[in-house]
């Protein structure tokens, strides 16, 4: 940081501040069009953030390291280790990457960019969950969690989870899209939905966080009592069923991640072989209880279709095993997506793949024909053939396109050999001349046709166009709507208690606007009617006198023991005595609206300020104060440094710098959350029409208090500084104003 600002280690705070202002003015992105100006400006700001804080500066002077050995000799190194007896100190802990070349290389392969995230990561999150870290340069907390992050990232990646890193300094758009407003931030992404991590960054919590992202019904616990029911669901689910036998009491995360990746194709069960009540299951399938075993069951539940055993199940081994067993031997065509996967479009003459389709129905009388077709498929499985079946009553358009509604197939099963020609639904096919009954003669005829097809592709002489298949397993509309509603409520609940309030502000604004429209008008009307009934309208003289009395009661120094009345605005001076109670320890949800003024502008600015904010005094969460610029200019300038472009740095740093006029500035200070909103004075030249007149209210006030008119040009110019302050207050209550955050409130000396 010293090198970035160009100052020495013995430089005073004034020298550091002066160097920062000069460099910030030179490298501000709005003034410097150099491509690297923005990164340079960030480095300057971060360097000043460290060196302007005495505690951070002391820590850096004592332990900091920017890739050089300055200020930390071998003698100091030995003394440090003698002082911290038995404590290991890694010098790389305080490594500050000033540019992309100095960044930690372990995160480079995980770095995400906005387009890469939208086009690849989000779609891939429907196959595996992602753990994403948002980091930045000069982030001490990021460095603190780095060892844990490296360990967990390597472990989860080996298990099948996705890992991502977003550098907030270089990918601001992506960081904002993810809703990360501070660093470090850890979040999970699954099915396109973002979930924030809120616990301590330790290995167990991060593993549990990723595991909690997964749906709870991915893997079913299987025992002797329910294994037959589980395996028999293949006909209803139209999926093979996978059983993992292991001696771990809980389902391994590796198995859960594999189940999530293949949940559209397979159903998963877990058998804890050490549990009483699994002996029959282990004995029937001859399971070695000391070696993890994975079995896949298809149409026959008495024997597995495939088995794999290994002392250490690895992700690659599981992926290879599951990808080879994604479908039943004779899968049922239940959707267009499944049809496209099982019967792909012909790409070339050497990559032909034919589908042998059994068109049948669900009734029991068709079971024999189906079993014969299944036996034939098991005996004649080839890479170029795919055996499937379809229920004609559930897919009538598909069946009519192939069978042409011929009488000989009515109420009977039929077999068709087809090949998809394009994605538009065009297929070439040939149907068996007679209905399929599963006899030996039918088997011979079908086998002969398949043999001819290998040498004569022109055998599929008929062509037709079939419509897309209906999705038979899709949930009903009401069920989809119900689950969508639950997801939305869950998101709102999570956002309400965990997410940044910036994300919730549009929803809250809409909600409160609707409530105001519904009830606000009625309440205001009711109070207006009751007020009109009690208090008759005063005469002109009484009204003028009342206004004068209100102003005197509001702004006179001698009216400390007044009784509040209608039109009264309590504005207190912010001093070192009430600074802690009125700002630093202000209750959550409360804000202090502070007017900046000088001794010469105090009376006119306070009068205009009271007129502008009077309509907002009904809110108990707003407090109104004023700050003397003559006494606390340094405190104000420190705050304005955190406001972008709020107080532009002058061209020269000289005595005129201290004479800048801040009168008329208004700060809305949130003491609990440590941010403020800024109102800049309105230039009097913007509205020429208001310069030629003076309000009666002001004329009466000054005529009575000073004995002369208040319509002087100087008075009007000062009051016009607070023009449109009421509109700014409305935006403040809406939450639509820009917020400037500060690390801590400075002392008000």
UniProtKB/TrEMBL annotation:
Annotated Pfam families: DnaJ (PF00226), Thioredoxin (PF00085)
Basic and acidic residues bias (residue ranges): 531-552
Residues of the signal peptide: none
Region of interest called Disordered, as start-end residue ranges on this chain: 529-560
Keywords recorded for this protein, A-Z: Autophagy, Endoplasmic reticulum, Glycoprotein, Membrane, Signal, Transmembrane, Transmembrane helix
Gene3D superfamilies: DnaJ domain, Glutaredoxin
Domain Thioredoxin: 89-215
PROSITE patterns: DNAJ_1, DNAJ_2, THIOREDOXIN_2
Designated name of the protein: DnaJ homolog subfamily C member 16
Residue ranges of every copy of the J domain listed in the record: 1-64
Annotated membrane topology: Single-pass type IV membrane protein
Compartment(s): Endoplasmic reticulum membrane
GO biological process: autophagy
Source organism of the structure: Leptocoma aspasia
A single Gene Ontology CC term: endoplasmic reticulum membrane
Functional description taken from the UniProt entry: Plays an important role in regulating the size of autophagosomes during the formation process.
